[in-house]
Amino acid sequence: MARRRARKRPKPHEEPEPTAESSEAGVAEPQPANKSRGSTAFWLLGLIVIAGVGLRLASIFGELWFDELWTVQLIEEKLAYVWDVFWVNHDNNHILNTVYVFFVGSDQPFWSYRIHSVLAGLASILLAYQLLRPVGQSEGLVGAALMAVSYPMVLYGSESRGYGLFVMFSLASVLGLERFLRHRTWRWAIFCAVCSLMGVFAHLTFFFVAGAMFVRCLAGPLAWVRRTGPANGPPETWRGLLTALPLAGWPLAVIAGVRIFVFPSFILGGSDKHRSYAAAWDALSVMSGGSDSGWLTVVPVLSSILLIGYGLWRLAQQDRIRMLFFASLIGQPLALFLWRNPKSVYLRTMLAPYTFLLLLCGISAVALWRRGGWQRALVGLWLALFCLGNAQSLGVLLTDGRAQYAPALEMMARESPGAAIRIASDNDFRHGHLLSFHNRYLPEGKQLSYFSADRWPQPSPQWYLTHSIARLRVPPDSVTVLGNLYRLRMNCQPPPLSGWTHFVYELERPAPRRE
Description:
The chain contains 18 helices and six strands. The protein has helices at 20-25, 35-58, 66-78, 95-104, 115-132, 137-149, 151-156, 163-183, 186-202, 206-228, 233-262, 276-287, 298-318, 320-340, 351-371, 373-400, 405-415, 428-438, and strands at residues 420-425, 447-450, 463-468, 478-481, 484-492, 501-509.
């Protein structure tokens, strides 16, 4: 009688060995592919990278928008030395981005303030591929393609803000954690710890990613207890926790320290916010390729919800540990909103869930495509909406830029008699910051004279600026301010997720003088 061969039991601090089932779910290491498939994947990834970097490079040459130039102004006003960045207690201070802009300096070409974001976007494409490559070659390529052409990723990967770096370090931290949990080597532990620290300094919303990493580490030991039985529970659970949780808890500790000791309270900027449910809806819409508002978002959002739901259900059947990681990225903002009950939230604070749920949609799309039938039709609908919506938004970004304040000022300078360009507006804070920055780029012999609402001059200003957070396509042809009639001269529409629409009005009939 043949002796039965004992099955090797995994060590408690290691991930389980790959199986056929776990390989489909994304646990197994990639199997060696033949040379032709590897060569095809290499060239496809190269084309994806070229497309993604090309879109980002084409987007960096426009003028700086409000938050970008605000960073330059904060540096000019508050930073004498680079380490002063830790004491600029302002929500517009994204530390790594501020450090980069500090070294670039003032009055440099606009594109030079954005190069670091382009490089971060390039790295994010490659990291997305590496993160999904264990799931499958197709999943890795689709994830890289989504990261390359997604409009928010191109927008944030080509502006002088911390969000491009945030996405890169978020993906790198999770990749480092996954490699550490599998291989248990110090190099991956150090890689994960360093990337997590950089993610915190890129943007404090790294809290969501760190929380999901913490859940990922906690789920591993608990899964081990479930496999081995309650007898081995306490010692094995503690061993697993002591091995992995310090690595995942490290960024949470850093965030707590920064929040308590460095930034005990934030000075908030002046941009409008969205209601909590509206921010989540808009994030899903933009992720799906829809616009950032309006009823046309319904079909793209429902398609993405179906893909996310299918992805979570599939992982729940095959790989519950990773299902908890994605679920926590949804649950954390929801729990925070229910706990704090905020009346409004910034849309860009949803960038952490957006990044990883976009990759989950890519995994689900590949899985459904392989099933054929109506599932393939659903994937085709989602991809069509994604491509059309992103192409439309990218077209606005590439053709019109982020702000269009420079063309407006050029027109006002050209048509203003004399040296002074006399301007008033409906919001002194927003227009005042933009005009004071662009004043340095006026033609020689021209000077900006801005009048706030509390010191309306006589005679009245020649130009009056208004704005709208909503993308108001058809503004009023005229406005009346203190009896002065102003006629519309320029309608400046920004791309989605970037600033606000502003309108330039010229004085047509001044108010009658009072005796």
